[in-house]
Design a protein that fits this description.
3 copies of one chain form a homotrimer. Chain A is of the alpha+beta class and about 140 residues long. Chain A has a domain of about 80 residues: Sandwich (Jelly Rolls). Chain A is about 25% helix and about 35% strand. Chain A contains 3 helices and 8 strands. Chain A has a 5-stranded antiparallel sheet with strand order 1-8-3-5-6, with helices on one face. Chain A has a 3-stranded antiparallel sheet with strand order 2-7-4, sandwiched between helices. In chain A, a hairpin with a 2-residue loop joins strand 5 and strand 6. The first copy, chain A, is elongated and about 50 Å long. Chains A and B meet through strand 3, strand 4, helix 2 and strand 5 of A and strand 1, helix 3 and strand 8 of B.
Chain lengths: ~140, ~140, ~140
């Protein structure tokens, strides 16, 4: 009883963007019990779960990540796709390209403060493709 | 044939805590083949798998993470929930809020040295809610 | 309808190694729709997805990770298994020990530039055991 849908999120600027409601509007009715698996088909973006309440949280994560992996890291050799490309690849593997969330009683069973974030690690990443798979 | 149970782990101090046996005692009989998916319903804690033998391993990971994301990072704006809050949010997205482990012949099919860790990233995080979903 | 197979990847040197074709050759025919879950049974290696085209990308990730967690980090206590052991444990929890990839129309539904990487974090890690579980 696996359901699957592929959809596209609009272009977002560099940073962490709450997309819980956009995702829910795409996937339709959920089963009683199962797992929602979300996968982003890109290597310079990611998906994560973090606090959904105060916008200073994703802003601080973005700032910390920018400081941690600077655009002009002197040892990077892969620079011809732009100074933000190699940092984006590393951040993508660090946060990961999928999240999986339990479904309970027909709803996503996240904590009160949890939301789904699109992690856009490029300065002009464009639209991003997501595959949602519902296992039940 | 999806099974699911939600349970609470007791409060742990800041650090990485081996919880394999606590998890197993909660989830009961496993199917012959499948996946155990564990999800923590919090954004300042995480779940990971790491060495289950020598306590100096989780201690060193904790130390490294503490040095890497210091409590008083000068650029953090989200500080009103405590100096440990913003580092906890970042660490949570770095290690992740779920683990999924194969089930083979009715048992978790981890390596000899693998154990499940609760990553408590707050100094007083309190009890933590876990959702265990068994897909088979 | 869960299928599962356990296989071994040959020893790789320290670094990130594209193993998409090796994985596909092991797992055989995929179902129409589902999830491929890959799990590495080790705590000093990992699995991730990243760019499959230019070898400078995995080389730069390796370089950045080596600089970030140096072998002789002065606060590490767990040093008796080798100077590369503790950095390997941390990197393993950062990139993670599993990846899960959607299956659509009987094929892995990754983006054009995505490939599966074995992350070998030890200098002589030896052969690595993988469990592939196909949920459909």
């Amino acid at each position: 009883m696996t359901q699957q849908i592929e959809f596209t999120l609009p272009a977002y600027p560099y940073g962490f963007h709450l997309v819980t409601s956009q995702v829910l509007s795409q996937i339709g009715k959920l089963p009683e019990t199962g797992i929602l698996h979300l996968f982003i088909k890109h290597t310079s973006a990611g998906l994560t779960i973090n606090e959904n309440a105060d916008a200073s949280v994703p802003d601080d994560i973005k700032q910390f990540f920018s400081d941690w992996i600077p655009d002009h890291y002197p040892k990077f050799e892969h620079v011809y796709e732009g100074r933000d490309d190699m940092p984006a690849h590393i951040k993508s593997s660090v946060v990961g390209q999928s999240v999986s969330i339990p479904i309970t009683n027909g709803k996503l069973n996240m904590g009160t403060w949890q939301g789904i974030y699109l992690c856009e690690f490029r300065y002009s990443g464009g639209r991003r493709k997501i595959v949602a798979t519902i296992l039940s």
